[in-house]
Amino acid sequence: MKLLNNKTLGLIAIILISGYGYIASCTHKDLIIPEPATGTIIITRGDGIFLPGTETIGDTSQWKMDKSHSSVLWSSAYLETGGLLTGRFNKFGLNSLSSSARQLYVSTGQPVLDTSWAFYESDPSKSYFSGYVQMNTSNTGEPGRDGGCYLGYVGAPKIISGTQNLMDSNVVVIRTTKIEFDTKSSGYIVTMVMSWKGLLSALHDTTVNGTLSYVKRSTVGEGTAAAYGQFGLQLNFQFNCRSFGITTDEISDIVNVQCNMNFNNK
Questions:
Q1: Rounded average pLDDT over 58-85
Q2: What Cα–Cα distance (Å) separates residue 265 from each residue in 113, 115, 126, 127?
Q3: What is the dihedral of CA 57, 61, 62, 67, to 10 degrees?
């Protein structure tokens, strides 16, 4: 009886030791124990400073907008409650468009320099930008719509081949009045003035708010003689098109805009 008890006790001990080893093995190798939540968001920002200069090609201290790889997109609900209508503007730039610059240019390229901007990663109080789109260059993928009813809806003139139209009747201009840190993300909060004539008798200004994201600088072709730097900025905002006299029910009151801007120092 005593021998039987010793065997039983030994078997129990083996089972307990094996079980402990299995639990310890799982605990240290298989189970990922998350860190306790603290509610604190850790945001790390660099010290990048990006300035346009005079767009001199070959000067690596001057940053240029890479228009070929940038875009300005818009979207709004069709018939106010339907699926989204979407489009992009073929012609846009980063210039404040002074009164003397608002004219018709006989040109197929950028008619004015894209130099109305500066970006300081860690000091948004020094950052700013002014940009514009040519309203008659909206591209939804439907030529009949873009060159027809759309122009009437927004009060834009028809495209004249071989020209760039930067007149008041055809441009929307935005300019920042304040850029500040977003305390809940690594991005920025932007306050802007949007200026557009639309279907009104004169230019109308309205304040809009948006979010700005910075795509950190990287090097393309690193280690080669042709290496260059690049970075990106993405701006998102909304505006009420009724503020500019737009009455068509083809689109809803609210229009969403996304600006994807890439820059390089080639």
A1: 92
A2: 15, 13, 20, 18
A3: 80
